[in-house]
Design a protein that fits this description.
Rossmann fold; 480 residues; 14 strands; single chain; UDP-glucose 6-dehydrogenase activity; elongated; oxidoreductase; NAD binding; 18 helices; NAD; binds 1,4-dihydronicotinamide adenine dinucleotide; six-stranded parallel beta sheet; alpha/beta
Length: 480
Amino acid sequence: MVKICCIGAGYVGGPTMAVIALNCPSIEVVVVDISVTRISAWNSDQLPIYEPGLNEVVKQCKGRNLFFSTDIEKHVSEADIIFVSVNTPTKTRGLGAGKAADLTYWESAARMIADVSKSNKIVVEKSTVPVKTAEAIERILTHNSKGIKYQILSNPEFLAEGTAIQDLFKPDRVLIGGRETPDGLKAIQALKDVYAHWVPEDRIITTNLWSAELSKLAANAFLAQRISSVNAMSALCEATGADVSQVSHAVGKDSRIGPKFLNASVGFGGSCFQKDILNLVYICECNGLAEVANYWKQVIKVNDYQKNRFVNRVVSSMFNTVSGKKIGIMGFAFKKDTGDTRETPAIDVCKGLLGDKARLSIYDPQATADQIQRDLTMNKFDWDHPIHLQPMSPTGVKQVSIAWDAYEASKDAHALCILTEWDEFKTLDYRRIFDNMQKPAFVFDGRNVVNVEMLRDIGFIVYSIGKPLDPWLKNMPAVA
Ligand code: NAI
């Protein structure tokens, strides 16, 4: 029986291994992690992450050929194929701080593999890593090899949170990069055989190691760039009276462009986009490609601009001050159908409003109160470390309360800010919400989910990203 061990039981390791286990009953899959609480949660009925369809998949194979364990060394030493899916945070100190990937966790996993292995291994990079990481890992493994042979493969993960299970069952492509040597090709084939249990052959792409590593960074940079492009247009739409949804629709009809990822919003978030672009920028700079680095940097700058612009709209619309005013925050996760709050634009928007002394009442259907408070107190990039190594949040932010539902969050509020596109925000009883708010009552829709006309008929002053401005907002000071 082929044995797979995956180091890292997070958003990537957990779902990917569950789908492999379900589709490959003849393979034993063990997911290991240094975080005892994470592994206990995987072994309980309350999984550590929320992802539609994940529960059902895990239920079918947990205890059959899918296991979660903290006994890392035992399972690594027994495995034929080892996936490494640990955190790759942005460095906060030293060389490359604020941009380069911090490979501390990766390196320690590689050293541990070298320490405990007694048989040949295929080591698979599942984490997103800088180009040429495989070479560094190869060196660590071979310098400590005791005669054991290692093959390193790059198999970046393209799943999107919120649709991870769907994406894993029907991936657009599976990418496997490896050495173009007889042993390298054999390793590529071994991993291909795993995916071939359910992925059609023509969707499994094989490349050299460096192309696979770079493709992941490139794919995320392209996706984020589309969002920044449409968000840049949204500012121009507001200035000219164009409607960004109409522009996106017209642009997306061009088959060379396509309709996906063209929704204007308060900004992109999630654990990957910013981190991967910063990493790409750093690699460009290290290779002397300043123009290329600046080009990609701009994608992040526009994202930051969009978040600032939103905060400025809120404050300037409300007589240039939100001091002491209650603002209901609808949604905190970085997108719908996930509880993940890593790099969510809600953090910067909330911090911006708190900076202007607002009182916030935050409601999100999935993000926990503890997580929200941590996010609002943590330093930039600290979130991307194993949970037990993250700084404890001392006390929550005083001006922030967490609400049970949208109605509680909006009660007596002066304004609502919709920051995640949860479906339930489309069908709230806005008449009831309006009646319980201070007047004038504002809605700032950062995801363009509400029916603007209906809300204006009720009496709200509504701001929607990239849409013709409410007459109220037209008379307010211009926003930067
Ligand atoms: P995560 O933070 O949810 O999970 C990483 C896990 O690794 C944590 O549970 C941590 O405790 C564990 N870990 C760290 N060092 C360890 C060690 N030495 N031994 C055992 N366990 C260790 O992170 P996530 O989101 O799963 O991401 C993992 C990698 O995959 C990152 O490189 C990320 O950039 C990449 N990625 C993430 C995607 C996403 O949508 N979240 C999509 C595609 C790639």
